[in-house]
User: What shape does this take?
Amino acid sequence: MIKEDIQKAILISLKGRKETELKVLRFILSEIKYAEINKQKDLTDEEVISLLQKEVKKRNESIDMFQKGGRQELVVDEQKQIKIIEEYLPKQMSNEELSKIVDKIFAITEDKTNMGKLIGMVMGRVKGKADGNKVALLVKDRMDKK
Assistant: This one.
């Protein structure tokens, strides 16, 4: 499970004195534990992946804000944190693979005007292997080609 991998990585980071990695992994582990307390049960790997994706998204938003504010040192720190978190996420799909899935969904769906429904169907197939924004852009482009 991903949670155990993170716990092992924390010990390795402690021994290797990797401060940034340790800080990020401890934060992620605490977020997982808070989510488990709220649900009153252990999280599945899919739920942990969803949580990790939200953390990456938060950091990407922070990067945008820091760039606008001219805080390059904070941008670099956030990028390092994203790289650490992405180690525990499944490999992201390429645009070609994603386009094929979008095409399949369009082929089997009768109502091609409901963008939200189409995005939901694609996201159900990719299960954490693609960013929602990327999926939305591909679906929108596909809808515009009609």
Remarks:
- The CA atoms of residues 119 and 136 lie 6 Å apart.
- Residues 2-86 form a domain with the Hypothetical Protein Yqey; Chain: A; domain1 fold (CATH 1.10.1510.10).
- The chain has two domains: 2-86, 95-144.
